[in-house]
Structure formats: C-alpha cells, structure tokens
Amino acid sequence: MAYKRRPHPEFSWSHSRNLTFTDCQRKYYYQYYQSHNGWEWKAPYLQKLTYRLKKLTNIPMLVGALIHTEIAADITQQQNGFAPRSSADLITATLTAFEAALDDAQQHKKEWEKRPSKHTMLHSVYYADGPSSEAIALAKDRIESSLFGYLNSQTLADLQSDPKPTVKHIDTLDTFKVNNSTIYGVPDLHYRRSDGTHIIVDWKTGGAAETVQAQLLTYALYVQSQDPTSINSPFVGRVEYISQATHQDVVLSQADIDAQSTVIQASIAEMKEKLHDPQRNIAKAMKHFPLKADTSACHTCPFYQLDQTEIGK
Ligand code: SF4
Question: Could you read off the pLDDT of 213-258 as tens digits, one per residue?
Fold first, then answer.
C-alpha cells in the first residue's frame, strides 16, 4: 500500500497505550505525538530523535518479541499440517535471531540512526557500554526455559488432545471498534475447543502482570467483535507463564467483558482531555504532560535523553 502522509497521528486505543498513559504522561506524549512523522527524512531534529528513541528496545523486550515470533510461526506451521518442531530447532532459531539482533545493535549504530525501523538498538548500547555478559547469559537461559515451557504448555497439550480445535487468531495485528474508536487488541492465540469454549492465550516470558485480566478482556471484546455469535459461548483467558512452565486460567464472564468496554471508553475520554483539537487528534502543549512523579527509574526509559536536564533540576 502506498505511503499516505498524515500531518497528525490517528487516534486509537490499546492496552499498552493505556499502560503508558497511566505510567507517565510525558512518555505518552513522546510515544504517541512528538514522534509522529519522525520517520520522515526531512522531519525536524527533535521529531526524528523522539522517533528513534521510541524504537529503542531492551533485552527482556527483545527476548519476548523473538519468542512470540517463533511461537506464532510454529503454531502457524502446525496449522498448515507441518509436524511440530523440536525444542532444539526452536531454541537454535531463537538464539540465532537473538545473536543477530545483539550484533546489529552493537555494530550498526550509525545505520540505526539513519533508519531506526530497520535495525535493532538496545537501550544499554545507546546509553551505555552494552549489555553485560550476565545479562546476555540470563537472556539465553530465558529463551531456553521459555521455549521448553511453550512445548510443555497447557495450550499445546490442549490443541493436541482436543478432537477438533479451531485456531482462529495467531498474533496478527488487527483492530476493532468500541463506540466508534479504533482499538488495537489482538490475542497471542485464540482458539475454540470442540466443546465450544473460546480460549484466549497470552504468552508471558516474564512474571505476572497485574493488568493481565484487563488485557484478556480486551482480547475477548476483539473476538466478539469479529464473531458476534461467540457471545453465547464460554470464554477462558489463559496466561501461559512459559519461562516458569506454569499457567493460569481465568473465566471471562460476559459481564466482565462488557465492563471492559466501559473501562476502555472511560480511558479514551481521559486521553481525549489531553487534546487541543480532538477532531484532528492534536495534543495540547508538552507542559500538559508532566514528568513522572517518581523519576528514580527514568534512566531506564527510552526517552531519558529528552528529559535528563529537566529531571536533574
Ligand atoms: S524519562 Fe521519566 S519522565 Fe521522561 S518520559 Fe521517561 S519515564 Fe517519563
């Protein structure tokens, strides 16, 4: 599709946007407004810098993204009739991709500055001397334990033992509408068991997150928007803590799913209070997006460079 330039970003809501909005208003401003069009060659310096910083990642995020990609590819292959891959194959492929990303971050800083979406850049490389050997070793352990956890997960066992499961969505970017607003919210995996139960899976390579229930409910809303008849079926949200080889199933009641729609609308209303022009999604000036109250962890933020002076005052 041809690139269509937009002078302002289009408004959309997502679980991660809401987390950013509640975590740090300034970060929200950088992430969703100041970085817009910063990918353009002729964009002003500050816009380009903000976009570059938005593209920074860190070791846990990189590991999580690589594992999600590998799992999605593996499940897709199985759905296409291929035999499940061995643990050695999955782990080798992910470790190879991890090493390549590390190498890219360490060797191609200049290239990343010119084309930040085409290269990997780690926070620890950009702001310091690169990840420690301990951090790299831990990341490799995490890759191995997570992929073993995936292969022994409740979800794979379920898909293999169920006589006729229907896999509906595998980690594909998509949107739906809540009260005319665009919502991003696609589950890592969604399938319907032959008993009619919809299972919505979230693969977690880290520890438990307090907000995971809201995330699963948003995914359930997505599923119901795609298939309104599913509203009459039971819904279960499953968090697979694959690095710990454990999982948690939560029944998602229709009342809770409906309530999540109200939560999303309230969150959107709060976000829109920060707009100078809601029609065109133009944010108010940066002074309306304060720094985080507790700045003790700001040195780990991708946008630290932009706020360092203000934080130091
Ligand atoms: S450096 Fe701190 S205040 Fe600035 S955007 Fe990041 S978290 Fe927010």
Answer: 999 999 999 999 999 999 999 999 999 999 999 999 999 999 999 9
pLDDT tens figures, 74-123: 999 998 988 888 999 999 999 999 999 999 999 999 999 999 999 999 99
Residues 209 and 164 placed together within one structural domain of the fold = yes
Altogether, the residues listed in the chain come to a count of: 313
- Boundaries of domain holding 192: 154-272
Q: Does residue 286 have its Cβ closer than 6 Å to ligand 1? A: no
Residues 27 and 143 occupy one common structural domain:
yes
CA angle 225-176-12, nearest 5°?
150
Domain identity same for 128 and 198: no
In the sheet where 175-178 sits, what is the strand order?
13-14, 181-184, 175-178
Best residue among 19, 20, 21, 24 to mutate for probing ligand 1's pocket (most ligand atoms within 8 Å of CB) is 24
Number of domains in the chain: 2
